[in-house]
Design goal:
Elements (H helix, E strand, L loop, with lengths): L7 H19 L6 H23 L4 H16 L4 H13 L6 E4 L5 E6 L16 H8 L6 E7 L7 H21 L7 E5 L12 H7 L1 E8 L2
Parallel strand pairs: 3-4
Antiparallel strand pairs: 1-2, 2-5, 3-5
C-alpha cells in the first residue's frame, strides 16, 4: 500500500526527529560525560517513542516526550568512565579467575573467588588480589561509590561465618583506603553463608561460595 509523505503519522515522526536532533545538539562539549549521555539517550528515546506512537496510532508527540525521558535515564546510567574502568579491571584480573561484569542495574561488579582473595578461615588479603584492588582505586571518579560484600561457605556456624564475611569486606575497604579511596565512599557488609552461588556439598562448590563481591556505581 502506498503511503503519502504527507500522512499525519510521517509528519509526527518527522517532528519528533527534529525534537531529537535538538536534544542531541544539547549534548555539546561543555557538558559533563554523564550529561552528554543523558542528552544522547533522550534524543534516541524521543525518535523511538515517536515512531512507535505513530505506528500504533498513538500521539507521536507525547510518545516522543515519554521516550525521551526513558532514553535520558538509560543514557545517564553507564558512562565512558565506567566502561573504561570495566575494561581496565578485566585486563588487571585476566587469568586470575576474577569475574568482571556490568550488572542489569548498571553497576560494575567484580566477583573475587577464594583462591584469589582469602585463605580459608582468614581475612588477610592474598597478594594475587592486590593488582585488582589497585586498579579499582586508580583514577576513580569522585562520584563513584564502592560496595563490598563478603561471603563464606557453610562450613562452621553463623557465629563464625558472619563476622568472618564482614571482616573480609572490611579488609578490602582498608586496603583501598591505603590507595587513596576514602572510607566514606565505601560501604561494607557480610552475608555469611546465606547467599551461596554453588552447592556446599562439594569442595569446588564451597570454594565458589567463599568469595568477595565488589560493586562500583555512579551516583547522580
Amino acid at each position: 500500500m502506498h503511503i503519502s509523505p504527507s500522512t499525519p503519522a510521517l509528519r509526527r515522526t518527522a517532528t519528533a526527529a527534529l525534537v531529537a536532533s535538538l536534544v542531541f545538539a544539547a549534548g555539546c562539549s561543555s557538558m559533563s560525560e554523564r550529561e552528554q549521555g543523558t542528552a544522547k539517550g533522550a534524543g534516541a528515546g524521543a525518535v523511538a517513542g515517536a515512531i512507535i506512537g505513530s505506528m500504533t496510532g498513538g500521539n507521536a508527540g507525547r510518545s516522543a516526550v515519554i521516550g525521551g525521558a526513558v532514553g535520558a535515564v538509560a543514557g545517564n546510567l553507564w558512562s565512558k568512565h565506567m566502561e573504561d574502568k570495566r575494561e581496565a579491571l578485566a585486563r588487571a584480573s585476566q587469568g586470575t579467575g576474577v569475574e568482571v561484569a556490568r550488572t542489569a542495574d548498571n553497576r560494575l561488579k567484580l566477583n573475587v573467588p577464594s583462591d584469589v582473595s582469602f585463605d580459608s578461615g582468614r581475612a588477610d588479603i592474598k597478594p594475587q588480589m592486590r593488582p585488582v584492588l589497585d586498579e579499582i582505586g586508580r583514577n576513580l571518579d569522585p562520584n563513584v561509590r564502592v560496595t563490598i560484600v563478603g561471603h563464606t561457605d557453610s562450613t562452621g556456624s553463623d557465629a563464625i561465618n558472619e563476622p568472618l564475611s564482614r571482616e573480609r569486606a572490611a579488609a578490602v575497604r582498608d586496603y583501598l583506603s591505603t590507595r587513596g579511596l576514602a572510607p566514606s565512599r565505601v560501604s561494607v557488609s557480610g552475608r555469611g553463608s546465606h547467599e551461596p552461588v554453588a552447592s556446599n556439598d562439594t569442595e569446588p562448590g564451597r570454594a565458589a561460595n567463599r568469595r568477595v563481591e565488589i560493586f562500583l556505581s555512579e551516583q547522580g
